[in-house]
Each structure stands twice: as C-alpha cells, then as structure tokens.
Amino acid sequence: MKHRWSTLVGALTAAVLAQGLVYAAIHFDKVLPAWSYYGIFQQVAVAVESIWSRVHGWPPLSHVQDFGWFYAAVIHLSCPLIGFLFFGLLSRSRVSWKPFLIVALCAPVETLAHRFFDSGGPWMEASFALTVFALMVASLGGFPAIRRYSEFRNEIRSALSWAVNPMWKRVS
C-alpha cells in the first residue's frame, strides 16, 4: 500500500508542477497575485528567468524568447525528476540508473517535438510529465500489475511446456 501512495504522490507532483509552470510561462505577461496557485508558479518562473539572465550577463526580461526554450527544457527535465524524488523518498525503493536514462532521453525528444509541432498547452505538458514519470517507475518494476502479469505469464509458460512435452520426457 505504501508503494501505491508513493506512486500517487510522485505522479501528482510531476503533473501539478508541469501544468503550473507551463501555465505561468504562457501567461508570463500577466501579473498574477503572488498568493494564488498560478502566482506561485509565476514567481518561480520569474526567479528562474532572473537567474538565467544574470548568468548570461543580460538585463532581466531582455531575451525572453531565448529563455523560453531553456525554460521548456528545464520543465521537461525537472518535473518528472521531482515527482520521482518524492516517489523514491516515500517508497524507499532502490533506484538504479534506468529512470535517469529515461528522463534524459525523453526530455530532448519533447523539446524537439515543440520545435516542429504546436504545444497542446499546460495539460499536454502535464500528461507528458506523467508519461515520463510512469516510465521511470515502470523501469524499476514499480507497478504491481506489471509484476503480476509477468508472474502469470511465467506460470502459463510452465503449464504449456508441461502440456506440450511428451509423457516420456516428464519422468524426472
């Protein structure tokens, strides 16, 4: 049961972060109240843009178009990773290198897809974050249904091999 809760918390974290950060980036020109749901994400976006501009030696908000591509890549990497961090902390399961390889391969693919196709908006980004998170958890064998299916498949294989083999080979 603890594993299911940790998966739920990690998935919700990844989806809410992705949806909120993308919504704040789309409505970057509007000033939202800092205490509101989207206002918090807008404050994060402004802080990331300020740091990014300082690192490049530019005044704030002078290269917003360039910042948009950087910010999209940050969202594609960070949201599934933060969700996976919550999953790992709550489930206390061993983590291998596979989830990090998955997020490292999926984030550039999503960023390249945005160069050629129009974005579906905040909810599309949330679904992408959920998909990457689910792949990361599945790479650890994290879904019990998948484990039960593989056990069931092995039982069927052993039963079929017993039924297919001739009687004289079953003498052991």
How would you summarize this macromolecular structure in one to three sentences?
The chain is mainly α and 172 residues long. It is built from 6 helices and no strands.
The pLDDT mean sits at 79
The quaternary state of the protein chains shown equals single chain
Overall helicity: over 70%
pLDDT < 50 runs, ≥5 residues: none
Query: How would you sum up the major sheet?
Result: none
Percentage of residues in DSSP E strands? under 5%
The value of Rg in angstroms is: 22 Å
SSE order = HHHHHH
Number of strands: 0
SS class: mainly alpha
Shape: elongated
Separate helix tally: 6
| Termini separation | 41 Å
Secondary structure: elements and pairs:
Blueprint: H1 2-26, H2 37-56, H3 64-91, H4 98-116, H5 122-139, H6 144-164
Helix pairs in contact: 1-2, 1-3, 1-5, 3-4, 3-5, 4-5
